[in-house]
Amino acid sequence: MNILYKVMQNILHGLLLQKDFDSMSSSDNVRKTLQNKTTVIREVYDGINSQERFEYELECALEGSVDYIVIEPTKLGEETSRWIRVGNCLHKTAVLSGLASFILPQLLPEGTPPANIYVGLPTAVLSVSCAALYGISWQFDPCCKYQVTVNSRELSQLNVQNLTNPSPVVLVHRDDKYRKTLHNCVALCAGLFAVRAVYEFWSS
Question: Mean per-residue pLDDT for 166-193?
């Protein structure tokens, strides 16, 4: 069990250091406005297939990995924002429940029923399930590489003119490999923890 804790600490420490370095680099890149690519999905209705055209333009922008995507159509912006929030929720749930499966059993008194089974196992299963669902539904979706931004500094760099929607949804491209690595590692350790807990319970 101590080995698992040390592995988790090393993984988290390394990822946090790398994330800080990546954040510093991204802050520098924000200043280079000339290198930023911005795509605007204009809310112009010119036929009955306008919604399909909006979705096609968004798909092309996502696959093109542009730096910023400004979505004027309200319906499309809300759907995209909701989809991103669900993916973020799965990521956070996988990480937090995985960490809870290690921490909570250690906080319970020794005289209580097997904490690894009644507390650690459900949270470990939840972590593995969320990570698996994210991997199946979100991992290969280009939308998972974007986040909705409300950062006034970033928005001021766009300098987009002639918007018909006063409050469009703005997506910014983010490197998600570190957060994927984080929740996959946590979920993997949680899964190993769950297998060990079940084995020890049935062996006792």
Answer: 88
HSE-CB at 10 with a 13 A cutoff on CA atoms is: 7
Q: What is the pTM of this model?
A: 0.73
Nearest CA-CA partner of 139 in 87, 64, 86: 87
Q: Cα dihedral angle (40, 46, 48, 54), rounded to 10 degrees?
A: -10
Of 115, 122, 116, the C-alpha closest to 97 is 122
Q: What are 186's strand-pairing partners?
A: none
Q: How much is the pLDDT for 43?
A: 83
